[in-house]
Amino acid sequence: MSSIPLLPALIVEFFGSAAAILLSFYAVRYSLALVRLQPNNFIWGFLFYFCSTMAAFALSRGVGHIVRITLVYTDHNDLWKQLSPFSGGFNTLLIVSVAAVTIYYHKGLAAYKAIRSEARKLAEANTKLAASAKQLQTLNTHLEEIVEERTRNLSESEKKFRNFFENSKDIVYFCDKNGQITNINSSGKLLLGFENNPNVINFHELFNDKEALQSYLDGLAEKGFVSDLEMECTGRNGTTRHILLTANALYDKDRSLIGCEGIGKDMTRIKNMTEQLINHEKMASVGQMAAGVAHEINTPLGIILGYTQLMMDDFDENSETHSSLQIMERQIQACRRIVADLLKFSRQTESTKAAIDLNDIVLNVLSVTEHSLNIQNITVNRQLAPDLPRVTGDAEKLQQVMINLFNNAQQAMESGGEIVIFTAAEKNLVRLTVQDSGTGIDSTIKNKIFDPFFTTKDVGKGTGLGLSVTYGIIKEHNGRIEVESPVLDRGSQRELQGSAFHIWLPVTPETAESQKEQD
Amino acid sequence: MRNLNVYITVAGIYLLVSFLMPGPAWALQSHGAPEGICVHQMAHILFAGALAYLYWHTRKSPAIASRGWRYLQYFCGILIAWNLLAFTGHELYELLTPEDFINKDTWSEQLSPPLSGVKIIYYIAKMDHVFMVPALFYLVRSLKTFYREARLEVNK
């Protein structure tokens, strides 16, 4: 195998040394630029030292190689032998220096990283602080506007709920855990009759029914609410009110009951209407029964009366038997009147209806009864509407209605008083009101006064058929009768003692048409 | 304080006795010819170790992961190889004799036949700049990249 020429290796060595020197100084240039750009960066500082020692090494080694090649291959070997230990020593020294710089890099970098980490945290904290300061500044700037806007919203909300609270036609109330009302709306005060002293109302004391009160308290304590609880309470001026109650318990932050809030709907009118409806149904049933009974009794009574009268002819008028038969006749006549009244109530009697003026009926009856009324210190106040439309009716039966009402009024005013008779046209109806200033009718019996045989008089003083007959006659005329006690004065809105019977009768069709034409 | 006084007294007595009892001195150690190559070779090993440490540290640290550091790692790797090659070259040169060279110290200098593994590896090691120059090239690239990134950061 042939020898290997070392010239290529020498060429590589020569130019490689030059390239190494060039590149190492190029590296120094960039590392210096980095240090100048960011003087506080430890890594750039390290790289600068590293590159500098590396450049020194490359320079030492490269120059050594170049000088060696130059001297040795130009017959100056002796000179190179003198220089080579220094060149080699430098090389070794610089290699160790580069290694030392590299080894110390570790500690420096750790310190730099710690400082940089702290600096980053500080910068982040500063950024957050600046953001917070900006936010605070913005908040301060707009605080007044925000407060103003929120106050306005709050005020509108408060106004909305205050209006709801005050304008509600139901009772809206708040009370403490003992039932003491802390706030109640105007409708509540009006319904319960506590306009002037709402601070002393205890809601629990308003319950007339103790069982309902217990249900209310149990519901709040156990479930935290009551829903659609029917309560009866004594409202304004002692009138009984039926309230449909819904309430919620109020708690403090420890979930302890501190009171309640509730809404009560006044169901009195609906309840009365329901009772009236039931009463009408009852009256219709009673009327049917009364008609049947009256028909069955009327015929035997007629026969008994006939035979009694025949027997009376057979005995001397002064005889005891004749006297007994007279008593029998009177009692049979009384029975027949009762039967007749029952038939009138059940509308089974024949009527002769014609267009009549209700004012005339009133005046006719007064012409007969006013004298006896005056004797009992009862004055009659006529408030009769002129040109009152005519109604279709049986004059005789309507006169009986008037007599019955006057009798009732007279009996309610034993020590005198006033009867007001009022007539008026209301659309296609004629209204007649007979109002007295008597004792009035208790609310508990108001729904029973039209029942047959219902009476508050002592035994033997009345049959209890007067108002039943009146009711029957008005129904026969397709009218309506209502009782009001105590009476609300439409002008002063005050409640007056006594009772008022209001009757509405339909206007005669021809009269109604002519009235429309006039309108 | 008391102990210090005792040490000073003992040292004083020792010096006094030394002056009173002179003998041959071995003040300086001589450095023979092999020491130079030994130190140089040790320096190569130290340099390679330092570069290996730098390579390892830059790889494991996520805080300094970027393209510039990757070039620096190339630099470390190639320069470690250069160190090993140079180390090998120096060792092999010690094994060669003047008879292994023809026309020594002339432009026509050759490695004499027969060629052995030692001679071939020495020949390759002679061209160690093939490693050193690329290593320095990557060092420059690395610094250039760092500089570009730092400029961008400063200009942000």
From TrEMBL, chain A:
The organism that produces this protein has a lineage beginning with:
Bacteria, Pseudomonadati, Thermodesulfobacteriota, Desulfobulbia, Desulfobulbales
Gene3D superfamilies, sorted: 1.10.287.130, Histidine kinase-like ATPase, C-terminal domain, PAS domain
What PANTHER family would the database entry show?
Answer: C4-DICARBOXYLATE TRANSPORT SENSOR PROTEIN DCTB (PTHR43065:SF46), SENSOR HISTIDINE KINASE (PTHR43065)
Principal EC category = transferase
**Does this entry carry the keyword Glycosyltransferase?**
no
The species this protein belongs to is: Desulforhopalus singaporensis
- Sequence intervals crossing the membrane: 6-30, 42-63, 83-106
NCBIfam families in the record? sensory_box
- State the reactions this protein catalyses: ATP + protein L-histidine = ADP + protein N-phospho-L-histidine
Q: What is this protein called?
A: histidine kinase
Keywords from the named record = ATP-binding, Kinase, Membrane, Nucleotide-binding, Phosphoprotein, Transferase, Transmembrane, Transmembrane helix, Two-component regulatory system
Q: Reply yes or no: does the keyword ATP-binding apply.
A: yes
Task: Kindly list the GO molecular function terms attached to this UniProt entry.
Answer: ATP binding; phosphorelay sensor kinase activity
Residues annotated as domain Histidine kinase: 292-509
Domain (PAC): give its ranges: 227-279
Q: List, for all copies, the residue spans of the domain called PAS.
A: 157-195
- Pfam family for this entry, one: PAS_9
Give the EC number(s) under which this enzyme is classified. Answer: 2.7.13.3
Taxonomically, which superkingdom? Bacteria
UniProtKB/TrEMBL annotation, chain B:
Q: Which domain of life is it from?
A: Bacteria
> What are the transmembrane regions?
37-56, 68-87, 120-140
Protein species of origin: Desulforhopalus singaporensis
List keywords of the entry alphabetically.
Membrane, Transmembrane, Transmembrane helix
Question: What is the name of the protein in this document?
Answer: Uncharacterized protein
